[in-house]
Design a protein that fits this description.
The complex is a heterotrimer of chains A (123), B (495) and C (424). Helices cover 17% and strands 37% of the residues of chain A. Chain A is α+β, with helices and mostly antiparallel strands and 123 residues long. In chain A, β5 and β6 (67-72) form a beta hairpin. Chain B is an alpha/beta fold and 495 residues long. In chain B, the strands form 6 sheets. In chain B, strands 10-3-2-14-22-21 form a 6-stranded mixed β-sheet. In chain B, strands 15, 17, 18, 19 and 20 form a 5-stranded antiparallel β-sheet that branches. A 4-stranded mixed β-sheet of chain B has the order 1-13-12-11, with no helix packed on it. The radius of gyration of chain B is 23 Å and the shape is globular. With 424 residues, chain C is of the alpha/beta class. Chain C has 3 domains: 6-121 and 259-330, 3-Layer(bba) Sandwich (FAD/NAD(P)-binding domain), CATH 3.50.50.60; 124-256, FAD/NAD(P)-binding domain (3-Layer(bba) Sandwich); 334-423, Immunoglobulin-like, CATH 2.60.40. Helices cover 23% and strands 33% of the residues of chain C. In chain C, strands 1, 2, 5, 6, 7, 8 and 20 form a 7-stranded mixed β-sheet that branches. In chain C, strands 10-18-12-13-14 form a 5-stranded parallel β-sheet. In chain C, a hairpin with a 2-residue loop joins β7 (97-102) and β8 (105-116). In chain C, α1 (16-27) packs across α8, α4 (141-151) packs parallel to α5 (166-177) and α5 runs parallel beside α6 (196-203). Chains B and C meet through α7, β20, α9 and β25 of B and β7, β8, α3, α4 and β11 of C.
Chain lengths: 123, 495, 424
Amino acid sequence: MAKETTELICITCPMGCTLDVTHEGDTIVDIEGNTCKRGEDYAKEELTNPQRMVTTTVRVAGGLHPLMPVYTSAPIPKARIFDLLADIRKVEIQAPIRVGDVVLEDVVDTDVDVLASRDMPAT
Amino acid sequence: MTEQYDVIVIGAGVVGSMVARFLSQYKLDTLLIDKESDVGVETSSGNSAIVHAGYDSVNGTLKSEMSVEGNRLWGTVAQELNIPFERCGTYVVAIGPDEVPKLDPLLENGRRNGVPALDIISGEEMRLREPALNPKASGALWAPTGGVIDTFGATVAAAENALMNGVTLRLNTEFQDFIIEDGRIVGIKTNRGEFDCRWVVNAAGLYADEVMHKAGVRPEFEITPRRGEYFVFDPNMVQVGEVLFPVPSKISKGIVVTTTTHGNTMIGPNAENIDNKQNTAVTQEGLNEIGTGALKLIPSLDLRHVIASFAGLRAGGNAECKNPEVSYHRDFVIEIADEVDGLVNLGGIESPGLTSAPAIAQRVIALLEEAGEELEKKPNWNRIRQARPNFHDMTNEERTLLVQKDPRYGRIVCRCESVTEGEIVAEIHAPIPARTYDAIKRRTWCGTGRCQGGFDMPRVVEILSEELGIPPEHVTKKGTGSEFLVRPTKEVEES
Amino acid sequence: MMTKKKWDVIVIGSGPGGLAAAIEAKKSGAQDVLIVERDVELGGILLQCIHNGFGLELFGEDMPGPTYAQTFIDEALELGVETRLDTMVMDVTPMRQVYVTKRDGFEELEARAVVLAMGCRERTRPQIRIPGTRPAGVYMAGLAQQFVNIEGWMPGERFVILGSGDIGMIMARRLTFEGAKVERVLEVMPYLTGLMRNYVQCLLDFDIPLELEHTVGRIIGHDRVEAVEAVQVDKDWKAVPGSEEIIPCDTLLLSVGLIPENELSRRAGVAIDPVTGGPYVNEDMETNIPGIFAAGNVVHVYDLVDWVTEAGYVAGCGAAKFAIEQRKHIDRELPVDTGENVHHVIPHRLRKDALVERDVQLQMRVTRPIEERVSVELVDGQEVVARQGARYARPGEMVTLTVPQKAYDAVNKAERLSVRVRER
């Protein structure tokens, strides 16, 4: 397999080190540019299976506002973000809602839930 | 059945609206039309808002006659119509010794024009009156009869008073052609159908040339739009008290530093001939020019405190002054047309157009009388138009009483300018309804403050949507095509 | 004499600064704490910041903005903080009167201490003087965020964003999530002005191009934005000729800076630092006006909300301490009312322990002449605390009553003091 170098910016902490990752396919050969071990871990995951926290809104019925902010309880695969957003668009939740309430469980083939980011009183 | 009128006024800017208001004194069926969705959308809401004393128009021209008379009349008219107007006096400031001699011809010309109480004061005296003035100020022409007025407010007030007294107003109605029989105008064609009439008053401002040409009147007359850009300052940070002009140039009064009736310092305009009657864009060059010009008068002016900028278009005409002894090529056209019967033709009403408006209206009446019209006064003509409550200008006691009458006057929608929900609702249901964000802005000053709509916008959209019974995505800034919102963020989709 | 309700602390604004101030004021012993909030609910700007990144410092957690706010909203309400929602503060005076208006009416509130927590407003298009037309479709990023996240409306479908600050980048992702297209992000500086992590998660992740050293040369479109002209700039921010590019779009988002919102502060006489745009404050977050404190973005623009909360705690504690001190001072005093035949009396108030060191002179004038022997009396209800005789009492001649030290106990335990002049 051919060796290639991919440039990544680590987002683990505000420093934002630029990492030069030399790899053959998914196998990492060398990482340069990181200031700490977390950069290495980030590079490994980002190259093979990048994960992201997702925050968005979901439609609400009978609430003070038409939308309610929600967030994933843990990161999900970056490749599945738009699938998750599509699933959330199929949902409408009924007010009143309490912060932390589960809106969707085990989304996009993970064990991550989508939770309410705030209270939403009923009108 | 085609609607029949005695007089149709084309154009509901400040001149057309004032003409309609004065016409409404008489037993005439009058129709006022405008192609826009509101009155006074064009030149009448994009100008310096100054009522000039009248010293600078060339002596012997209609401009000088109308402006001096208009200046005099505004005192009464503004009071009758409850229009904010302050006769604060205006100044032409000479900077440096070379400019002082240029004030004398202005004084002479002003006195010949009949402007009262003009005087020349020293640079020292001028600096006492305006401490922030350029220390090199060497003298000033003081015109105590000059003042500032709420220009858009004036247009609405005149139009409302006209309506109160029986005039019909049709907006979104665009003149297309005259209906002429045997050399006499008997009606007009518009995009909303035909209307019969005996007289037409052409008050179409930027489009006055196009209107008159449809009747073959003054084929050589041409309106060249001349754009002027302005900056408006935060009243909390910049407060220049006086109205200051520089020594004028050949084509324009120069870049003024003025205070609006609302309390903002405003600078501008520059003057640039353009070819598009709709182009009110602001330009980098224009903004640089007015900044530089204003700093000559007030060197300490901090441009970082600009909160708004806009441009207005002057309807610059090319008519020769009718007085054979005067050589002037940009005079007002105010006359009964020769080429066709039934047209009172107004053209080239640029500055001092706002100042002249009441005088022009009176002149239109005089022209109709001269032409043989029997003008019979209505016995119950109401010259007074009440203003609606203005939270911004009220005392706390007045505010408390107002809120007790209608709780919506207690809910602030525009924080920066203290505009309440009650006022906005009142304008939406006023005789000339505000139906767009800009219409509300012109009437209430909502959105003109520091945050430029940052706080009020969602609330105004909600109120317009509710009061007009339209979905939020149909609420516009200035009419169809300028909607703010395109769709809901998300709708529930089928699984 | 009618006494008006006096709040210990009034907090203006219920964003993170205001909420923290109200909470800490309560915890520091303030009794009546009121938050006045112009919106229909508590939380301030955090309610529309639905992305995460909040609470990393204070809680070690990565929370969305509304969740961070909810924590403090719950705590404030549990502590008994009172609120007036949908209420606008029109004015604050140096004596801490707070004039507010809402649908119910216009009200004058009184506070012992005030905490200013009004936050920021956004820099506008006219302030950065973008030439061009004035169509619909030019939005400040925060306003667009409010429409998208709270009101539930998209302001457009095709966006250009000016400014690579966090608000601009966050909105780039948000709009993309909701099906819009972000064509370009333009940044006038030669570097990113927001966080690197946002660059990765908001722009790189979605292939949204960022152009540094670029700005909007002009806006195009008569009724609605039709395009913007992007232009490269040199180090003096002057356009590089020939670099103009027309980018078709229907919305321009401006993320060009925040300005502390201090108009109320100015009207109260609070001195404003021209460098920060916010009040001068000491370590208690107290302004130059005693009893008026300030916390959060209204003082200067913060980048992490956690530090806004900390500043709010400081201001709330300071405000509470000030209020408590004020109350003690007033509780130690009694008003001296005018009773029968007395027009006015000086002093108006006596400290309860006034007589510890010396006698006190009360000076008064009568309402009518009494040409008979009179008794001048200081009374607590009907109980006489001090008395003096005089041969007459006339309005033209000041009447004096000496309250001797031996009346100390009577004054100290008095409930209501008043002076009267009676015929003997």
